[in-house]
Automatic annotation (TrEMBL):
Pfam families xrefs: ABC_membrane, ABC_tran
A single GO cellular-component term on record: plasma membrane
Name of this chain's protein: ABC transporter ATP-binding protein
Swiss-Prot/TrEMBL keywords: ATP-binding, Cell membrane, Membrane, Nucleotide-binding, Transmembrane, Transmembrane helix, Transport
Location of the protein in the cell: Cell membrane
Membrane-protein topology: Multi-pass membrane protein
UniProt record similarity statement: Belongs to the ABC transporter superfamily. Lipid exporter (TC 3.A.1.106) family.
Ranges where the ABC transmembrane type-1 domain occurs: 27-309
Organism: Streptomyces monashensis
Cited InterPro entries: AAA+_ATPase, ABC1_TM_dom, ABC1_TM_sf, ABC_transporter-like_ATP-bd, ABC_transporter-like_CS, P-loop_NTPase, Type_1_exporter
Ranges of residues in domain ABC transporter: 346-579
Amino acid sequence: MRHARISPLAAFRTFWPLVSVNRAAVLVSAVLLVAAAGCDAGAIGIVGVLTDDVLTPGDLTAFWGPAALWLGLAVAGAGASAAGGYLAGWTSEHFLLGLRDRVFQHLQAVPPDALDRFGTGDLVARLTGDIETVESLVASAPVELITSAAGAVVFAVAAFWTSWQLALITLSAAPLIWFGARWFGTLMRSATRAERDSNGRLATLLEESLANMPLVQAYGRQQAERGKVHREGRNWMRAGLRQIRLSSVYGPMGELVETVSVLAVIGAGAWQISEHHLSVGGLLSFAAFLGYLHPKLQELGEIVVSASSATAACERLIEVLRTGTVRDDAPRPDVPPLAEPVRGAITFEDVGFSYPGSGDPVLDGVRLDIAPGLLVAVTGPSGTGKSTLGKLLLRFHEPSRGRILLDGRDIAGLPVDEVRRHITLLPQDSMLFDGTVRENILYGRPDATDADMIAAAVAADAHGFVSTLPDGYDSPAGKRGNNLSGGQRRRIALARAMLRTAPVLILDEPTAGLDDDSTARIMAPLRRLTAGRTTFLITHDLRLTAQADLVLHLSDGTVTMTVPSLPARTGPEPEPEAA
Ligand SMILES: Nc1ncnc2c1ncn2[C@@H]1O[C@H](COP(=O)(O)OP(=O)(O)OP(=O)(O)O)[C@@H](O)[C@H]1O
């Protein structure tokens, strides 16, 4: 798979405006770090003075002035370095937090199926490792670049001031370091891209394998799963080793260049001293400047290398940010806001839909007119578009043609949040969170009172079993609700849906996977939930179809509508269990 390639500068321009960074903090930290480098340079200059004025003549009285100045510079340098370093770190951490929030916010607006192509583990890798790498390029690298470049300039000027001939010899290595860094940067970038992609694939594999552990163990497939994890782990290791090989060559190559340059300086310095163009103190100062200048040049080279390799992570994040979100323009002026209370009348006007990238229409010219409060069973063979109908209602996707109306308003012209506020989805998978039972029920309406919550649990036939849990509503549901049985999870999900007061309901196979007893237990709560709400009940279960006011049968993209032979909502509404 080919990836869009971007330069470090383009990556910086993409990500820098995404997060509001405290620019004053960036500037102050850079100034402080440059000041620290200035103090170091000043202190080194004093080495030469001490050598020539104190050590060579053996004059202790000349020691105290330069010594006090050196100490003062050391204290000021340490203070500036500590404050500048902290401020730079503070900016980086805030940038990281802001960028992760921003990318996560984008993901929340992407239709759920569009996220599937990444895989959960890979998305986690992008939101953690890749974001940190982007931070290193966009927030940390500019400060490092400014301070290293300023440090290099300060020490280079000081070196020129001491001996311009020796300084020229030293700086002749700079172009070598620069081109070397560019070349290594290109190699590191492709190595990093391979490493990040492999990391994402391994994370997805691990996530899937761990989530499916009951199946893996029950089918005795542990060895096969171990094999898959090992193979992907080996790919990751190889990609990591390629990075290590490159960086282990880059460091020593820089040191080699430095050694050659130092030897040349010592030789030329010795010749200058013999010609009386330079004092021993001057050569010592120069050597000390060199000791500081070379690391700065090396740092600049490393910034070039790591900036190039960081673009690989930038590309992976840009892929996420370019994944299309649900269109949520400003409300269309021709669509008046919904009149409260929303009744839940649903109309499909000649609706057609194809998934992006697949030519065949899933729905083709669907026309429906559903009066408020009707229970509509949606049936049809697998893959005929029953769930797709619900996704269009929730605006996870937009119809390719036609319109969907809620109480006569085109939902495409209303804010997405407004549409979803009036629709409750009860997905096939109960989707509980790792919190308490209370938190899971209140997810439907966080500001509901305890009395409302308990009333919803009673109506969902959940109150009885919740009361027997050790901590009642404060008992942990476990990861994905694992502390509860399948039927109990379903009833908690029902209570959560009950708490929402939305007039439209989408139930996706509410009895799938439940045995007869559990199905029988949720029938009455289901009828209470659907009462008075326009309900789309996606189901293959004939017991549920028989309860409906209308049955929609999907086939070949079109819909036929029938009235079930057994009229449904007749007879008294079943009473909820006693609280
Ligand atoms: N995200 C997607 N991208 C591409 N095609 C999709 C996507 N989701 C579903 N489809 C295709 O659209 C068609 C309708 O899918 P949908 O899930 O709506 O069917 P369904 O009637 O609900 O099936 P089932 O009864 O098996 O749940 C199927 O052919 C499916 O392969």
